[in-house]
Amino acid sequence: MSHNSAVLSILEKIASKDKDFRYMATSDLLNELQKDSFKVDGELEKKLSSALLTQLEDTSGDISGLAVKCLGLLVRRVSDMRIEDLSKALCDKVLNVKAKDQQRDIASIGLKTVIAEIPVLSTSTISNQVTTIITSKMLEGAGNKDNMDVVSEALDILTDLLSRFGGLVPAEHARIKECTLGYLGDVKVMLRKRAMSCLAAVSVHLNDALLEGVVTEILAQLASGKGLKADVVRLYIQAIGNISRSVGYRFGRHLPSAVPLIISHCEKAGEGDEELKEICLQAIDGFLQRCPLDSRTHLNTLLGVSLKYLKHDPNFVDDDMNEDEGGDGGDDDEDGDNEDDEEEEDYSDDEDISWKVRRAASKCLTAAVQAYPDAVSELYRQIAETLVARFKEREENVLNDIFSAYVTLSQQVASASRALPEADPASPLSLLRSDAPSTLKICARILSKSKSAKTRIGVLSVLHQLVDQLPASVADHAALLIPGVVNALNDKSGNSNLKIEALQFLRLLLASSSPLKFQTHIKAVSQVVCASAGERYYKVGGSAGERYYKVGGSAGESYYKVSAEALRVCEQLVVVLAPDAGSRVTQTLQPLIKPLFDAVMLRLSAQDQDQEVKEAAITAMSKFVALLADEISAEVPKVLQVFLERLRNEVTRLPTVRALATICSSVRTAADVSLILEPVVAELTSFLRKANRVLRQATLLSLEVLVQKYGQSMDVAGLVAAVDECVPIVADSELPLASLSLRFLVAVLEKQPSVASTVAEKVLPQAITLVKSPLLQGSALGSLQAFFLALGTAAGAGSETLMSKLLEAGTTRKAGKQAQHSIAQCVAVLCCSSSAGDSEVAKTVSGLLQRLSSGGATGGGVTGGAGQRLALLCLGEIGKRKDLSGMTQVESTIIASLASDIEDIKGAASVAYGGIVCGNVQKYLPSLLSAISASAGTPKRQYLLVQALGEVLGSGSSNSATISSGDLTQVLQLLLGNCDGEEECRTVVAECLGKLTLLHPTEVLKELQARVVAPSANVRVVVLSAVKASVVERPHPVDSCLASSLITFLSLMSDADRNVRRAAVVALSAVAHQKPSLVASHLSSLLPMLYEQTVVRPEMVRVVDLGPFKHTIDDGLELRKAAFECMDILLTACRPQIDAPTFMQHLESGLQDHYDVKMPSHMLLCRLAASEPSTVLAALERFVPPLEKTLATKVKSDAVKQELDRHEDMIRSCLRAIDALACIPGSATCAPFQAFLGKTVMAPAFKDKYLLLQRERAEADRGADAMDLS
C-alpha cells in the first residue's frame, strides 16, 4: 500500500498550478515507476493514466517530456485494459484536427513510446488488441485529406507500428497498401517520404499477391514515365530500393523488370541530377545486399553501371594523373606534378554533389564483393584496376569508401586463396601479386603527399592488408613507403589514430622484411619511432635526479596506444640491428643503439602508465638485452634490477617472466642474469602456487631455460623448493603443465645431479602414477620418457631400479592397455639409453622373455595376461630402437605368442613382431612376408601379421625407408593381393597401403590407380581407404603425386556400390580437412557427385519382417550421414569454391532426414548462417517447414531412456539452429520465420529451452571476446 499512498500524494501535486510543483511531482512519479516493486490497484491505475494524459498537454515542454518517459514505464506496470484506454486516448489526441501542432507532436511521441514498450512476442493478447486499435485509428486519420498534418503524423505512427507488429493485422494490409500508394505522388515532399517509409514497413508483412501489386504498380509508373516530375521519379526509385531492403529475397522475382528500369533512369538522368543517380545506385546496392541470388544474373550489368559512376566527376578533369601512375611511378619531385597536387587539394565547389554518386557506386562494389566470394577472381579482374585508379579521388569521404572497397576485395582474395596452392596461377592471390607494384607506388605517393589524416589512415589500411597477404612484395617497395610512414609519424595534427595505423603497418613491414635489407632504412624510422615511444613525456632535472612527467591529460585512451605500438616497433628494430647471432652491430648502426635503448628504458622505468605500455616496454627491453647486451653492457645491471621489480608486481609479472625466458634463451646474450638469479628463482617458485594457468606455464618455461643456463651455479635449496612445487603439477589433470614441469625437472637433473635423490623421493611416485594414466600422450609422454632417462642417468638412481618399478606398475590392476603402451616406451628408453651397453639390453630382454615363458607372473598376485602383454610391448619398443636379431629366442617367442588364447596377448605380440622387424628390416621382413602369405587360410592370424607389417611401415624409423625395391614390390603385391579378404583384414591392409604410399608415393599410387576399376567393390573400398590414410597434415612429398591423381580416386563417388561411394566420401572429407588445396580446384566436378549422396534413395530402404512387427532398414543412411559431414568440412575449408544456393538446396533435404542426418545438418545451418547470412536469409522461408516438423516430432509412449535422450538432443540442436537464423540481420523481414518463432518456438513447450540456449550462446560470445582481448 506504500506505493498507493505515494502515488496519491504525487497526483495531488501534479494538479498544482505551480509549474515547478508539477515538474517535481512528475519527476517523483518517474522515480516510483522505475522501481521493480511498483504496483497499484485498478482505480489508481485509471487516475494515474488520466493524469499523465493531462501532463502531455502541459505548456511546459520539460513536464510533457517527463510525462512521455512516465508513459513508457507505465505501460509495463498496468493492466491490458488500461493500455488499450491509453492507446485510444493518444490516438484521439493525434487525430484531433483542432489540436495545436505542439500538442499533436507530444501525443505522437507518447503513442510511439507505447508502441515501443509493448513486447513483440507477448503471450497475452495485448499486442493484437493495441495493434488493431491503433491501425484502425491511424488509417482513419490517413484518410482525412482535409488536414495533411494529421495525415503525416498518422503515416509516421503507422510506420513505427507496422515495423513491430505488421504481421498482426493482415486484414488491414490491403487498405494500408492503397493508402500509402495514393500518397506517393502527393505534392508535399514530407508526405511522400512518410508514405514511402510506411509502405516499406508494411511490405515485409504483405502476402505475395499484395507485394506483387505494390511493386508492379510502382514499376509500371516508372516504366510509363508520363507526367511524372523528377522528384516523384526519384521517390519511386527510392521506394523500390527501400522495399527491396525490407523484403529481401522476396523482391528477387522483380529484378528482371526492376534492374533495367533503374539503370535506364540512371543513364537518362540530366547532367545536374546527381540525386537521381545516387538513389538509383543506392537501389542497386540494396539489390546486391538483399537479393544476392537473383542479382547474380544481372551482376555484370550492375558492375558496369557501378564502375562507370565510380569515375563520375563532371566538374573535375585530371588527365595527367593516370600518366604518372601508369608508368614507372613518375618523378614525384617534378614541379609540374607538385602544381597539379596543389591545384587538386585547393579545388573546392560547395555546389558539387557528384561525390555522392561516386560514394554510392563504391558501396555497390563493396556489396558485390561481399555477396559473391566464390566469384572473387572474376570480380577482381573487373573492378580492381578501376578501384586503384580512383585512389586519386579528391573527396575524402568517397576516397575512404574506395579504400574500404579495395580492402574488402583483398580480404576476399585472401579467403579464396587459402584452399589453393600459393603458386597456383588460378589463385586470386596471383592476380593481386601481379598488380601489387603499381598499387604500392600509388599508395606511397598518396601517403607522402596527402595532408589529410583521414586519407592517410585509409591508405595505411590498404597497405596493412597488402602486407598481410603479400609481405615479400611490400618489403620490396619499402624504400617507396618509408618516407610516407615517417611523415605520418611526424604529423603535428595530434591525430593518434594516424600514428597507430602507421606504427602497426611499420611493425608488420619490419616483421616480414629481411633484417639485412631493412638496415638501409632504419635510420629513417628509428628517430620518429623513439619519439613516438616517449610521446607526451618530458624530462626534468639532471642525471642525479631525473624525473619524467606526462604532458596534459587530454590525450586520453589513444595516447598510450601510440606508445605501446611504438615500443613494439622498437622490438622489431632491435632484430634489424642484430640479425645475425654470430656478428656484432655494424659501425654505421652503432649510433642508433643508445637512442633506441633510452626510449625503451624511459617507458620501462616509468611507473604511472597504462598496462599495455608496461607490457610492451618489458617485451621490447627483453629483446634488447637478448640481442644487444654486449652493446649496452654498462646498462644491463640496471635493466635487470627493473625486471626484478616488475617481477614482484602482480600487474607486470607475467610479461616479465616471459622476458626473462627470452633473455636466457638467447644464444648471443652477454647479460649476466646471475646478478638477480636467487631472488628471481624464489619469485618464480612462488608463482607455481598461483591459480593462473598461463602464469604457471610461462614460469615453468622460464625456470627451464634458467636452469639450462645457470643450473650448475644455482643454489640447491632454491632448486629443491622449486622441485617441491612441481610435485602436484605432475598429474594428468593438466597434461600441458605436467609436460613443462617434467622438462624443468629434466634440466635440474642434468645440471644438478646431486638433487636426484630428492627428485626420486618426491617426484617419482607422481611420475609412476602419471605413466598409468589413460590420458597420457604426445608431448607429455615424451617429457615423461626424458624424465625417467635423466633420473636413471643421474647419480644415486639406476635405470634397472626404475625399470623394475615401471614393470611393476604396468602389471597392477589399475594399469590399462594405454598405460602399458606408455610404460613400454619408457622402459625401452631406459634400456636403450646411450649409457646402457649391449649387455644391459640383453639382460633386460632376457628378463622380459623369462616373464613371457613363466606366464607373466610377478609375484604380486596379478594374473599373467597383463604381465605377458606388457613384456611383449616392451620387447616391441626395444626392438624399434635396437637390433635384436642376435637373440634368436626373441622372434620365436613372439611368434608363439601369436597363437595365445588371450586376444590381448595376440594383439601385443603383433605389435612386438612389428617392433623387432623395425630394428632389422633386412633380416626379419622376409620371414614376416612369408608368414603373411602362409596364413591366407587363417584370417585372424593373417590380420595379426598384417598389423605387424603396419607397425613396420608406420614406425617412422630410418630403417623403414631402407626397404629395397625388390622388397617394395613384394610388400605391395602381397597387400594388394589381400584387398578382398575379411573385413577387418581389409581395414588393416588399407592402412598399410596408406603408410607405404607415404614411403614410396609414385610406385604405390600408380598401382592403386590401376585398381580403381577393379571388378571387386571390396578392392575399390581398400584403394580409397589407402588414399585417405596417405593424406597427412604436415607437408609431404606424396602431396604432389596426389594432386594429379586424386580426382581419379574421388570420382568413385559415382560408383554403383554404396560402400565404395561412402569410402570415397570419407576420403574426400579427410583430404579436405588435412589438405584442402588438393581438392579446391576439383570441387566443381566433385560437389555434384557429393550432393547426389545426400538424397534418400527408395531402393536402399527395405522392410524386414520380424514376426510380431516390421523393422525398416535404410542402407543409405550411413552414406548420407558421411556426405553431410563432408559438406560441413568443405564449408569450413573451401568456402570460396562452394556455390551457396546449391549447397543450401541439399542442406534443406538433410533437415528433413533421419535423426543421424538432422544433427550434422543443424550444425551446418548454424555455420552457414554465420558465414553467409545474406544467402541464408534469401532461403530462410524454405527452412521453416523442416524445422517446424522437427519440433513437432513426438517420441513413442513406450520409448526407452536412450530414445528420450536422443530426441532431447535433436530438439536442442534444432533450437540452436533456429537461434542462429534469428541472429541473422534482417531475419525479422521474413514473416513466416517470425510467425514460426512466435507461435512454435516461444510456445510453452520450447520457450524455456530456447531462452536457455540464447543465454548460453551469449555467454560463449562474451567468453570468446574476453579471450580475444587477453
From TrEMBL:
Keyword field contains Repeat: yes
SUPFAM superfamilies for this protein: ARM repeat
Protein's UniProt keywords contain Repeat: yes
InterPro entries attached to this UniProt entry: ARM-like (IPR011989), ARM-type_fold (IPR016024), CAND1/CAND2 (IPR039852), TATA-bd_TIP120 (IPR013932)
One matching Pfam family: TPR_CAND1
Example of a GO biological process term: SCF complex assembly
Tree of life domain: Eukaryota
Region feature Disordered, mapped onto this chain: 316-352
Keywords attached to this entry: Repeat, Ubl conjugation pathway
Domain named TATA-binding protein interacting (TIP20): residues: 1078-1235
Family of the protein in this entry: Belongs to the CAND family.
PANTHER family registered for this protein in UniProt: TIP120
UniProt protein name: TATA-binding protein interacting (TIP20) domain-containing protein
Organism, scientific name: Chlamydomonas eustigma
